[in-house]
Automatic annotation (TrEMBL):
This is K+-H+ exchange-like protein. One of its GO terms (cellular component) is mitochondrial inner membrane. Signal peptide: none annotated. One of its GO terms (biological process) is proton transmembrane transport. It comes from Thlaspi arvense. Keywords: Membrane, Transmembrane, Transmembrane helix. Pfam families: Mit_KHE1. The keyword Membrane applies. The chain crosses the membrane at residues 151-173. Residues 194-225 are annotated as: Disordered.
């Protein structure tokens, strides 16, 4: 599966890194993930899989349960305890860095990436910034993952209280989030190591390339996992940005044109 990534400056030295979501793509991990503990145990015990595969299955099972519980809180009536917990959760989620959300979007199903960027940027700089965010993500999220795992036994002690154990579920979510971001960082770093040239060759170059293909079939048969693609449409939407960065109207237009999450993109503009 190819993922479409968008890279563009949004305010000063702050760049936006976001994945374009296909509105027609149906992502349903619950279709292959067991919905009950008995089904999970049966799937793990009946199939001989590596420990890593069983661990991912367990994480997907927990994630599916957390998503269903979150949707239940979202539908709670106004003024109820569940509704207040949902409001608190939204405030906590607003503090999650956009780079973490971006890295989490690079799932294990992604086999290649298409990087769309304005032609005013140097493609080598675009690739370098992508590599930097992937390398820093492997370091940061590995450290935060270990810290979150350490806090899980401590927050589980609040289970004795009659109130919902919000600290435990928040730390559990952060553990899952850092683990996904770490997996995405490693995946992105691997994908961008094999890129194609953003320039389109002319007819003469095509003939030379055809001759080279006959001489080196093995080298050319390997399709790149990272394609850099300049976009004139994105360049026109960006226009002349002021010192304060892109305004919200421009960001909304970019999000509509390239199917981005407006809330995640706006976070990049508010970074210090």
């Amino acid at each position: 599966m190819r993922a479409r990534l968008l890279v563009f400056p949004i305010k000063g030295k702050n760049w936006c890194f976001s994945r374009s979501v296909d509105p027609f793509a149906a992502q349903s991990p619950s279709g292959v993930t067991p919905t009950t503990v008995r089904g999970l145990w049966k799937k793990i015990s009946s199939e001989s899989k590596p420990i890593n595969a069983n661990a991912e299955l367990l994480v997907d099972f927990i994630s599916d349960k957390m998503n269903k519980a979150w949707m239940g809180l979202e539908k709670a009536p106004d003024g109820s305890i569940k509704n207040k917990i949902h409001g608190l959760g939204l405030k906590l989620l607003a503090r999650v860095k956009p780079s973490e959300i971006f890295l989490k979007s690079i799932s294990k199903e992604v086999t290649s990436v298409q990087v769309t960027y304005p032609p005013s940027l140097d493609p080598r700089l675009v690739r370098r910034r992508l590599r930097h965010i992937a390398m820093s993500g492997t370091i940061l999220h590995k450290k935060y993952l270990m810290g979150s795992v350490t806090l899980l036994p401590l927050t589980s002690a609040f289970m004795i209280l009659p109130l919902p154990n919000i600290p435990f579920f928040w730390v559990l979510f952060r553990t899952y989030s850092h683990w996904r971001a770490l997996q995405g960082s490693e995946k992105l770093l691997k994908l961008i190591s094999n890129q194609s040239s953003p320039q389109k060759p002319n007819s003469a170059d095509d003939a030379d390339e055809s001759n080279n293909n006959n001489e080196k079939p093995e080298q050319e048969s390997r399709s790149p996992t990272c394609v850099l693609l300049p976009s004139e449409e994105l360049y026109k939407l960006l226009g002349e940005a002021s010192e304060e960065g892109l305004d919200e109207e421009t960001i909304v237009e970019i999000c509509k044109s390239f199917h981005l999450n407006k809330i995640d993109v706006l976070k990049y503009r508010n970074l210090v």
